[in-house]
Write a structure and sequence with these properties.
One of its GO terms (molecular function) is phosphoprotein phosphatase activity. By secondary structure, the protein is an alpha+beta fold. The chain contains 12 helices and 12 strands.
Amino acid sequence: MHYFFRQLAAFLVVILVTVMTMGFSLVNFTSNEIYEREEARLLELAASIMVQPLSQDYLSDIELILQGNNVKVAYYDASDQLVYPGWDQIGNGPQNNALNTGERLRLRQGRYLGLRAYDMGFSNDNNDAWSVFVPIRDSQGNYQGYLVLGTPTRLVDKFLLNLQDNIVKGFTLAALVAIVLSAAFAHYQQRRFSEFSRATKEIAAGDYDISLTSKGRDTIDYLAADFNTMIASLKASQAEVLRQQDLRQQLMLDVAHEMRTPLTTMNGILEGFAHGLIKEDKREQSMRLLYNETNRLIRLVNENLDYEKILNEDDPLHRQVFKVQPVLADILLQMESIAQDQGNQMILDCSEEIEVYADFDRFRQIFVNLLKNANQFTEHGKIKVTADYDQGLTKIAVADTGIGMSTDQQAHIFERFYKADASRKNSQYGEAGIGLALVAKLLERHQADIMVDSQLGQGSTFTVSFKSEKLIKE
């Protein structure tokens, strides 16, 4: 509620300052406008009076007419002596010497004096009229005195008071309406912000299914839309964290299983040696089995250590240009025994002229892993390795006729711990489930790309594109 009251107070301060400023300005502007209009009216009447020679009879007749408009007339000669009305008619009327020297000089120069307070005899009060002073000249331009026309101040002041009263009432009503609307608007805004507070509490409690209403009309709506995007991102991140936790848990089970088997075998063999239970003709076979199981454990540990080293970029790349064909041929020869165990045929289609710019050892590691992966998921099929060079890119493809992958599997195969086929977790060629993740990280460090084309039951093709030395250094 504190935010609501702060908003309401801010709105009220702005409204009141605005209303007071506008009211003062309007009253001041209107007052000036009325005074200017009254001055213009009196000057116009004075001009119409002076079209004929001024005399007491003429001015007396004119004043009778002007009384209907609440206007009185006074006439002073060039010596500043009152000519009309006469002293016998003056009563509380115009007085001599009402003007100062500067004002009289201005009149002699032919300039009129604008609206000002002057005693015209409308009441017993002093300065009871708003009057104008207009110089009089004869046909030769000689100064003959001045004419004074005045209207009661009470009439003008009453009109102004009524006008000001109406303006104040109008602005007061407008201020009240604005205050009510501001309170309603502030409450509405507070309610909208309360939705954010409620949403953040639910998110803190682990509920990511909440969504804020956003109609795209104002900044808060845009903020709500961004908030919804953030919630969706948090929800996706939470789902990914849970998925990674499941993968890690599965990895621990897999690693424990993979380690248990060789350790159990090794323990049994060692106990047999310790108790003399292994016959002489079986000793060589037992030693070979012990050696293989030891290598299996070493390979399992090395795969994880190697991935961490590459992930942290602790091992710098030493890139160079070398021929692709001899390296791939050597790797296929190395993989021959694995392929035979799976009943697979491996084929190399690569020109001897094709070169690649890469770290030699890491290049071998990449394709050893890709060929291991191909053999792991292919039985009694073909694995073909092709290479070509196109527009600064060395493209090497590993295609198999194995079990293939679904679209969902393809989206995750380069993630650490992920296995496309969990049933193959016991395979001696793919224990840890990090081979393709390691490949992806190595290719990223090489600024190379890898693409997968696969369908379930129809095999998979992994295509790696290495940039030339020129493209890398540009």
